[in-house]
């Protein structure tokens, strides 16, 4: 560890996990690492409208400062601002960005910097994978979800009307900069969105981490709910340090799993998709009303219920999972989406139809990650589960009061 930075490696990516110390100049660190580590004629920062308001100007200034401090560097820095929200993660948005890059004369040595949450990282990463047959990519995730999940592992993609992330590639970033400082601008709902993935990671691999997350909700969550500034967001620095340990642990677990199965050839990487078989189907039917983590939280509860009915998991452990999710204001049943205008879409038939094109499937057979305890899985990869079994669990959830 140097300069308060912990370095982890996932595939070809260096993951820089930064100090939560408010005195640390993380923007200068990012700028130096990118410009000195990845020499180029051009650096392109891509972000969305929401993130641009908070972070674009400062990151752009940091890059310019490093360039101007070295007379031998004459690189240009460009910016591109895309619309916000999951609904913009489309082939059309990708094509628009690519056309702009071509018109702007950006060449194959360009380094693309994705500044934002999962939508920005996924879409911009896919552009980087295909522009001039691939250009170098860096991730600067600004949401908890992107820090612990979407920026790590090299998957990049866009959505289609038939499902999430159906068109994409594997294109690991050269550098991923994970700095808790970015979280101070997050609304509480976005923190919960990311905590769903942190909880998921602990549930599949680390029982001690799961218990700590479950017992720490007040320490982390109340900082977002009760102590707010004029903008409605905040994070007490002591909580930031606390959350940093969960971020580092989540990244370490995902990196270990991904490194063992980089392109999902032996099935073990599917373990990080606990909750996602049903969760992605829920999310696709509720967009844009439900966030990814909210849909995955319900997906975890339903898939854990399947594990209970198959004798792998105890009902007590299912309750503990639900209680942990509830402690972070996450939904645990499809009934929690009752106020969504799209809630009538959550029928058994429609959910099974969406699950039919899940990337984990083996032909027509659907695959679900089944827990054997809170911290381990029943198999080393997702398990085949019959449609009738999935349908029964979904139907039971919709009938609960």
From TrEMBL:
CC cofactor: Zn(2+); Co(2+); NAD(+)
Class in the EC hierarchy, top level: lyase
Pfam families on file: DHQ_synthase, DHQS_C
Localization (cell): Cytoplasm
EC number of the protein: 4.2.3.4
One cellular-component annotation, GO: cytoplasm
3-dehydroquinate synthase N-terminal domain: residues covered: 80-192
Domain of life, source organism: Eukaryota
Limits of the 3-dehydroquinate synthase C-terminal domain: 194-361
Designated name of the protein: 3-dehydroquinate synthase
Organism expressing this protein natively: Ceraceosorus guamensis
